[in-house]
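Per reviewer request, we include the raw input and output of the structure prediction for the construct analysed in the revised manuscript.
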Amino acid sequence: MKILYLAHRLPYPPNKGDKIRSFHQLEYLSRCHSLWCACFVDDPDDFQHVDRLRGYCEDLAAFPLDRTVATARALGSLARGRTLTEAYFHTRRMSATVRNWSETVGFDAVLAFSSSVAPYALACNAPRRVIDFCDWDSAKWLAYAHRSSGIRARLFDIEARRLARREAEWIQAFDASVIITDAEAAEVHDPSLRSRITVVGNGVDLRPCVPPPAEPRVGFVGAMDYPPNVDAVCWFVDEVWPVVRQRVPEATFRIVGRRPTAKVKDLADRPGIEVTGEVPNAGTCIDQFAAAVAPLRIARGIQNKVLEAMAAARPVVLTSLAAEGIDACDGRDYVIADGPRATASAVASLLRVPRGAAAIGRSARAFVEEHFNWDREGAKLDALLTTPRPLRTPPATPTVPRPPQPTPVPV
């Protein structure tokens, strides 16, 4: 089959959540199909990887996305009663390329990775159209609104509501819709919409495990310009870390991830804290942790940072929000802790009792080996793309889902 793969970000290198998922999808589909990929590049450093990704495709078009220009375009769209998301990722060059390929290649199917590129997919003349929402972006905007104040909270709330309506429309417009977890799918209550949604999860790359270090080192790995990650590490350092250091004075906390904000960099001035910035291999850094933390207070879908630590046989302390979609056993495969006191106690306990921490790490590794497999999930996606298009009946007017209220985390 000839498949057009559309993405809001270059699917390489697989060094952050959405790029990990999109790369593995593209790699799997390239084994049996001919792929054309059109995407944006929002980090100039990623242009060096375009040729590497081109090896999986018949053709690849990667367009630079200027964040300042895109933001201005998005705000103008919001003022005109539309969504920020669609305008942010709308460019004439992308539209022209998709239109030209659609006319000259004759695609059998098109896959839109994320709602950000849904309009491009619907403009493509292909017999089969599939969209991978990953998770509901409208719900993330609502979570941002609840964590903000003033005009920012108001703008985020408007985007959440408008985008929720668009998500409902896109579910109807595409032949199949994909979401990343059963929990995300369950948030759609309208039966006419829910019946069109398929859950396709994530996998995890498995590598040989190494013994944990003797040093009581705690770690966090993630893109450090991503607001939920910034919020997580700042909250952890302010509210949890002083208590951990009281109980385990020699403990250190290492924050690993590209493009740390000024707020994150300033955390390195605190006792026992290191901010590394981007590293060549995040897996090597995880190997140097005695325990990992995921103190996320804004979270949707599956947290790859948690899966990667579990795959390395490291015990993870995480919030209940970060645990959603993984469905492991609390106390056996990871440790769920909400609030400063519970989080500090869990982290300190793992550092004080290495034997217990190692047991949780071994169980975590076994869990992800059994439940998270890229090839199994890729086969589900392939089936959606290759299924013959059914006869369509005029859809009933759907009930627009209200963006779900995020579960508050005690602080």
